[in-house]
Amino acid sequence: MSKPFLSIERLTQRFPDGQGGTLTVFENASFGIEKGEFVCILGHSGCGKSTIMNILAGLAEPTSGVVKMDGLEVAGPSLDRGVVFQNYSLLPWLSTLKNVIFGVKARYPDWPRDKVEAHARDYLAKVGLEGDVVHRKPSQLSGGMRQRVSIARAFANHPKLLLLDEPFGALDALTRGTIQDELLKIWGGTEQTVFMITHDIDEAILLADRILLMTNGPYARVAESVEISIPRPRNRTEIVEHPNYYTIRNHLVQFLGQRSKEMAGERIEGEDLRPETVRIDQAAAPATEDNPDKPPLRAVNE
Ligand SMILES: Nc1ncnc2c1ncn2[C@@H]1O[C@H](COP(=O)(O)OP(=O)(O)OP(=O)(O)O)[C@@H](O)[C@H]1O
User: Do the Cβ atoms of 33 and 193 come closer than 8 Å?
Assistant: First the structure.
């Protein structure tokens, strides 16, 4: 089998637990992400999602294991990997436009000034920021606008991998909805691979090709990889009509509400613990007479 674009191999993270012992957040976690995939990760607070993201970004080193992108080991941060955090991380002394230009200049040092500026404006326009607003400083923008700038800045740099750590966590539901749509639009036109942490099940179903489900820690595991068998383009109002929507949603709710806790702390021996692939497709296998209300669910081990 050929290696995926991003390959997480036997990742283990231990921290001192503050009482003279060791906390094992996860052990021998392995999974892959294909080029162009949009993958969300769901799990309860403290299971280790941000730790995984920081390792993928090259901002932290695991206790053991490796991450490879395009076959090369991730060691330290790189412009090939863009990160968007919940707290925006814009440069407060620069205007909106200059915040984006700053990143583009670093990425494409040979581009002439006007090309850099046009490119930055183009990406800001894709998230609905045009006109005078691009000259405002971050402190003069609303939370939703600031997050749009962060997303425009990240996409404008064409990173091979985009890491989003709960980018909409601090936004109200309406703004969140609009920016999710913008994110889908901006991602749809690229080959970009996205790995995103969210706590919002509906957001994950709307955006993702695949959702990774983590059990509670310690010894958390990426237990399942749930394929979102709903065609694109998707939109918030129509997606709920799809026959797979509620079956997938119920599966995720059940995992997070019950199974993630039942499996908590379970230490599984193994060198290479991979998630089980779950495909839920009502259309492919409709409910039968013997089994009228239990949706068919196929779990495939890869
Ligand atoms: N530098 C550190 N030193 C010690 N323990 C740490 C450190 N960083 C994280 N942890 C612990 O590792 C575990 C995983 O933390 P992490 O932030 O990755 O969780 P998370 O799933 O992202 O949580 P949330 O959803 O609340 O952001 C937690 O128990 C946390 O307390």
Answer: yes
